[in-house]
Amino acid sequence: MVAEPGQGDEVVTTPAEPPAVPHPADEPAVRERARAIPEAAVARLAIYLRALTELSEQGVGTVSSEELSIAAGVNSAKLRKDLSYIGSYGTRGVGYDVGVLIGQVERILGLTRNHSVAVVGIGNLGHALANYNGFPGRGFPVTALFDVDPDLIGVPVGGIPVDHIDDIPQVVADRDITIGVIATPPSAAQEVCDRLVSAGVQCILNFAPVVLQVPDHVEVRKVDLAVEMQILSFHVARRADEGSTESTAAGPDGAVNGTGMSEVDGMVMRP
Amino acid sequence: MVAEPGQGDEVVTTPAEPPAVPHPADEPAVRERARAIPEAAVARLAIYLRALTELSEQGVGTVSSEELSIAAGVNSAKLRKDLSYIGSYGTRGVGYDVGVLIGQVERILGLTRNHSVAVVGIGNLGHALANYNGFPGRGFPVTALFDVDPDLIGVPVGGIPVDHIDDIPQVVADRDITIGVIATPPSAAQEVCDRLVSAGVQCILNFAPVVLQVPDHVEVRKVDLAVEMQILSFHVARRADEGSTESTAAGPDGAVNGTGMSEVDGMVMRP
DNA sequence: AGCCGCTTGTGAACGCAGGCACAAAGTCGC
DNA sequence: GCGACTTTGTGCCTGCGTTCACAAGCGGCT
Ligand SMILES: NC(=O)c1ccc[n+]([C@@H]2O[C@H](COP(=O)([O-])OP(=O)(O)OC[C@H]3O[C@@H](n4cnc5c(N)ncnc54)[C@H](O)[C@@H]3O)[C@@H](O)[C@H]2O)c1
Ligand SMILES: NC(=O)c1ccc[n+]([C@@H]2O[C@H](COP(=O)([O-])OP(=O)(O)OC[C@H]3O[C@@H](n4cnc5c(N)ncnc54)[C@H](O)[C@@H]3O)[C@@H](O)[C@H]2O)c1
Q1: Is residue A231 helix, strand or coil?
Q2: Fewer CB atoms inside 10 Å of the end CB: C or N, chain B?
Q3: Which nucleotide is nearest to A83 if distance is taken from CA to C1'?
Q4: Contact indicator for A262, A48 with CB cutoff of 8 Å
Q5: Is B120 touching A (CB cutoff 8 A)?
Q6: Any chain A CB within 8 A of the CB of B232?
Q7: Are B224 and A260 within 8 A, CB to CB?
């Protein structure tokens, strides 16, 4: 049971010679996946959406790829390419209509409907998530909370009473839960995950530091703070080794403030 | 890279092994940089470390790349390549000595020393982070808390009294803070970040959904839950479109596939 | 002692993502 | 109505990261 996606170990499909022989003709077996959006692009679309929403609230009606790319902290060419994956909604010589683009990005991201969220494990983190109002504001209302602790059952957190995890099947069905958030101790994560999946949840956001085993049709995203810190630690260590270079005085003003972006260090693109 | 989510990629150097790479480089800037560990590999090393630590606690003394790769949820070839970045510590025909490997990974990740963490913004999330005992257990003790709310100043959270953000310079220096965690509202994030950087903090973990502007020598990692959810939403929507083909309800022990992104997964639960 | 099988370490191919640069396309001004 | 300017959309090239496949190396078995 090797944790490995598709292929078995030795697929003898193409007996063709591995040695380099530039094969001209043959098409690379075009899948029926006509519109495949790179995963990395999807993540950025979410960032663009936040920047666009902010612009919209400011009354901005049109934005160029250059402006938007600065707000999102990415390269403008990359932004245009990302947007091209979802269609051609820009106007050459003008830019993009903010409203239209918001609609299209939301369509692609599946945000035209609400996605009810269930949080399992109402401890430190679960409480914070339940009380967070950034999710409902973005189409992800938290509508169910679960725990095993008898003292918590029935207690409202963030306005929602905690249910027992045995009620997962029922509640998930009733409230049309599409996203399950796991905030239990690591030891309980897999079991909780299994229960959620059995109840029909196809999206899991996991905060427990374990690898979850799920069927292929279930999507898992993981947030691992310890790993994030260790990556930071690595960079510190590396920096300490390399001779310290001169430190350029940072710019006095920052100004451009946008929204999230990938976890790159603070490099700002040039206009 | 991201999480989640996409991932800033940046080659980084490590002070590990001799150069010894007879590569017919056509690189213009051939620095004497020894070897570069891909950012993605660094993230996975943290995962391997957790798996190795667990194995060690179970008394396992030796592990093969195959076993470890399963525990970490990755391809075994990838695991070997990742480990090769930090040196050759395996024994052919046998595998890796768990203790030795833990030591080497910790060395590369800079975990031979403790990294004191400061959390800024002791609200919902800040409380959870301050109370979390998973950090101290991994060499990241939270030793300082900051906020602006007068009602919070002096109140101990997770055993540590909250300081006012004006005390950042002093406290950061006194307690040798190396990592700053931003858990303030988005509007305050940039200012808090600037203060931390001014105080000498070179690593930032940001939970606020904004792009932080920092000097080049500061490393920023971002955790953006809304983006994670939107990525999940995207996959639901996409599945709904083309999903009408076949619904493979087969595989009970699904592969830990998940995102194809740079984000990596944690480890697997022991049976 | 020598062979055999297992596992590592890595060269090389492949595929994806990023970024440049430009043609296409539309607008604005005159 | 036409030209010049602006900005999009994308072809192509580059480089990184992943994966395959195998020779080298090591321990154990006979
Ligand atoms: N607190 C943080 O800031 C933080 C940070 C990073 C990661 N995490 C991870 O998030 C998870 C939760 O952390 P926490 O600090 O909130 O822990 P916690 O101990 O405060 O809360 C865990 C909650 O899960 C409940 N629980 C236990 N077993 C359960 C089960 N089988 N089904 C349902 N609920 C169950 C407990 O009753 C408790 O309420 C952990 O895996 C932790 O590693 C937390
Ligand atoms: N709560 C969550 O589960 C969650 C989830 C995802 C993202 N976030 C993000 O994390 C951040 C914090 O969320 P929260 O729910 O804890 O918010 P919160 O409002 O509960 O807490 C914010 C805290 O920051 C403090 N603060 C405000 N301005 C400050 C300043 N200038 N300097 C120092 N402290 C300041 C406030 O006094 C408060 O204690 C937000 O950016 C939010 O978007 C939170």
Answers
A1: helix
A2: C
A3: D9
A4: no
A5: no
A6: yes
A7: yes
Q: Which atom of ligand 1 is nearest to the CA of A208?
A: 41
**Nearest-nucleotide field for A14 (CA, C1'):** D20
pLDDT digits (tens, 9 = 90+) for B126-178: 999 999 988 877 899 999 999 999 999 999 999 999 999 999 999 999 999 99
Could you give the CA distance from residue A73 to residue A93 in angstroms, rounded to a whole number? 22
> Which residues on adjacent β-strands are paired with residue B12?
B37
AA identity, residue A84: S
Task: Walk me through the domains of chain B, giving residue ranges and CATH numbers.
Answer: 39-108 (1.10.10.10), 116-225 (3.40.50.720)
Which residue among B74, B255, B265 sits closest to A222, beta carbon to beta carbon? B265
Q: Which pLDDT band, with edges at 50, 70 and 90, does B82 fall under? A: very high
The pTM score is 0.83
* Segment B253-266 mean pLDDT: 35
Give the pLDDT score at B259: 33
CA of A127 to the centre of ligand 1 (A): 10
Question: Is residue A248 predicted with pLDDT exceeding 50?
Answer: no
Q: Tell me the DSSP string of chain B.
A: -TTSS------EEES-S----------SS-----EEE-HHHHHHHHHHHHHHHHHHHTT--EE-HHHHHHHHTS-HHHHHHHHHHH---EETTTEEEHHHHHHHHHHHHTTTS--EEEEE--SHHHHHHHH--TTGGGT--EEEEEES-TTTBT-EETTEEEEEGGGHHHHHHHTTEEEEEE-S-HHHHHHHHHHHHHTT--EEEE-SSSPPP--TT-EEEE--HHHHHHHHHHHHHHHHHHTTS------SS-------SS-----BPP-
Q: What is the pLDDT of residue B27?
A: 35
- Render pLDDT for B207-249 as a digit per residue (tens, 0 to 9): 999 999 899 889 999 999 999 999 999 998 887 776 554 433 3
Mean pLDDT for chain A? 80
Q: What is the pLDDT of residue B243?
A: 52
The pLDDT value given to residue A9: 28
Distance from CA of A129 to the nearest CA of B (A): 8
